[in-house]
Amino acid sequence: MRYLLTLAALASVSFWPGAVRANDTMAHFAAGELVFTQTDAVSMVSEDLFLSMNEVRVTYRFRNLTSQDVKGLVAFPMPEVGRTMSDADYPDGPEANPMRFSVSVDGQPSAVQFEAKAVLNGRDVTKTLRDLDIPIPPYSERVDSALKKLDRQAIDRLEREGLLETGDEMFPNWALAGAYHWQQTFPAGRDTIIQHRYKPSVGATVLSLDSMVRAKTAEEMYLVGENSCMDGDFIKGAKKWAARQLKSGGGSQRILDYILVTGANWAGPIGTFTLTVDKGHPDNLVSFCGEGVRKIAPTQFQMVKKNFTPKQNISVLILDTGF
């Protein structure tokens, strides 16, 4: 029997005083798209997830529950990355590996391929860009050069399809998406340890510190961590943080998201799920949704769950001092 598999990754969580992108799931390619499905052949014995602004690391222990090898394609869908008018940490890797993604299987490096695509509101627009010889990463400097070479007819086409806004300058509306993938065998009746790491794309928004000091709610502070479980204690801490930053310098809010719910697609729940969030600096504040979170280091917070079935993704809000 042949199985097609997928390893997905993306993520985010919230906890103060200390707040954090995707998860492994089975999949198959249908009509050129990566489609997730469930499997009862392989279980996830454990997942150890480390989230920070500089790196995401994940270690999985998978167990083949059958008496025959399970073979197929393992894929890691990258999060969509669009061009933004605000400051952001764009993927800094080459176009062939924008997230600097790497994989090891049972301690040995595994060759990975990356299939990039351009999307707009869930629609694959890669062919349109390739037809016009426009690079797929919208944040690439080569995009601006390519757009300037287009004739009026091509620009009208991009505007008509919603891919481009024009005015004082041309602004691309599409996002870079895609998937890393490799062939994987899960030996019969054995455990397989898969480790991967990558550099996340973490948005940053400059904060109005004086407004934060006067504000009473997250909305008045213009904090955008909607799913990061900000509570009253975090709001109080954010006001104090803003007051300190007014004296010492600026600050920004950073959002790190991670898709976790695909972890529910393996056979049974995750045996042991360990989440570690690193806020980056002792003076940073962090907020993410979690139960039983404990501080394990000056900048790190950890949650451990047994027989865990993820019901929601992780979204981590970090108030960053910039140090």
Provide a descriptive summary of the structure in words.
Keywords: Signal. InterPro entries: DUF4424 (IPR025538). This is DUF4424 domain-containing protein. The structure is a single chain. An 8-stranded mixed beta sheet has the order 9-8-15-5-4-18-21-20, with no helix packed on it. Strands 6, 7, 10, 11 and 14 form a 5-stranded antiparallel beta sheet that branches. The chain has a 4-stranded antiparallel beta sheet with strand order 16-17-22-19, with helices on one face. Helix content is about 15%, strand content about 40%. The chain has 6 helices and 22 strands. The protein starts with 5 loop residues before the first strand and ends with a strand. Residues about 1-35 have low confidence and may be disordered. It folds into 2 domains: about 5-115 and about 175-320, Sandwich (Immunoglobulin-like); about 125-175, no CATH class. The chain is an alpha+beta fold and about 325 residues long. The chain has helices at about 125-130, 140-150, 150-160, 210-215, 220, 230-250; strands at about 5, 25-30, 35, 40-50, 55-65, 70-75, 80, 100-105, 110, 115-120, 125, 165, 170, 175-185, 190-200, 205, 250-260, 270-280, 285, 295, 300-310, 315-320.
